[in-house]
Design a protein that fits this description.
This protein is α/β, with parallel strands linked by helices. The protein has a single domain, classed as 3-Layer(aba) Sandwich (Rossmann fold). Helix content is about 35%, strand content about 15%. It has nine helices and six strands; from the N terminus they run βαβααβαβααββααα. Strands 1, 2, 3, 4, 5 and 6 form a six-stranded parallel β-sheet that branches. β1, α1 and β2 form a beta-alpha-beta unit. The mean pLDDT is about 95.
């Protein structure tokens, strides 16, 4: 059975991001995937809560594609979460409409992978900075899937890593749609990179 997948893309400076531009180009042709450019749809942050809640009801996997900004998401993603995941809808008394759905992030991080280690300049793994998002998913009774990440994104165009990463993103979305993705194995990795996909995607 095919999963219903929605991709929320959020990048306020998207025309300057070669990595995210390539990922969007890889995403759009994937059949059966709903694509929403949040900054194009809500340039003044006037989020249509009823429409967004209906989108969540209509989909099984909710994936946010965005850069890591100051150890978190771009501002519009936070605004979307604050307004859309209402009490009585996503959590709290009667708030079980997202029970069993999947929340996932496809992130680009400017720092290299070694920066996100105890001895690196970020001091903590990338996954640690995503704890508030993981707990948001948990409060809403959703599964928080291991994020798909591109480290060192600012230099990725120069060293040839963008094309394989974008192709991996296409493969990931297709596998999520086709229910052919090993979430359990991905969880054991913490963060998923393009080199992991062969072990996570079924034939």
């Amino acid at each position: 059975m095919l999963a219903k997948l929605i991709v929320y893309y959020a990048h306020p400076g998207q025309r300057f991001s070669r990595a995210n531009e390539a990922m969007v180009a890889a995403c759009r042709p994937v059949e059966g995937v709903t694509f929403v450019d949040l900054y194009a749809e809500y340039p003044r942050f006037n989020i249509d809560i009823e429409r967004e809640q209906q989108r969540l009801i209509d989909h099984d996997v909710i994936l946010f594609q965005c850069p890591l900004f100051w150890y978190s998401t771009p501002a519009l993603v936070k605004e979307w979460i604050d307004l859309t995941l209402e009490h009585g809808f996503a959590y709290g008394a009667g708030g079980d409409r997202l029970d069993g759905k999947v929340m996932m992030f496809a992130l680009t991080a400017a720092g290299p992978a070694e920066a996100y280690t105890p001895n690196g300049y970020q001091h903590y793994p990338l996954r640690t900075f995503l704890t508030p998002l993981e707990r948001t998913a948990g409060l809403c009774q959703m599964r928080f899937a291991a994020p798909y990440a591109l480290y060192g994104s600012l230099l990725a165009a120069d060293d040839g890593r963008i094309p394989p990463h974008a192709e991996g993103y296409r493969r990931l979305l297709t596998a999520l749609r086709d229910d052919a993705y090993d979430f359990e194995r991905a969880d054991s990795l913490g963060i998923v990179e393009v080199g992991h996909l062969d072990s996570l995607i079924g034939d």
